[in-house]
Amino acid sequence: MEIRIGITNSGRELSFESSQSTAEIEKLIADALDSSKSFFTISDDKGKMYIVPTAGLAYVEIGSEETRRIGFVG
């Protein structure tokens, strides 16, 4: 699924694909914000790890878990 993370005072956003479920990502971010951690980490499908500061978190957009259709819809 696609994840997009906006960081304050940054013109770009983090955008990557992850194999984690929506619930896992939501819990990871909520736990980091509730416990006042200074950052949280998420890894993508290719094995890269992203360390995101919670103080600069503007938004998190989590895509759907459905597979995309290819072709025309009639």
From TrEMBL:
Native organism: Mycetocola zhujimingii
The protein's name: DUF3107 domain-containing protein
InterPro entries in UniProt: DUF3107
Lineage: Bacteria, Bacillati, Actinomycetota, Actinomycetes, Micrococcales
Pfam families from the UniProt entry: DUF3107
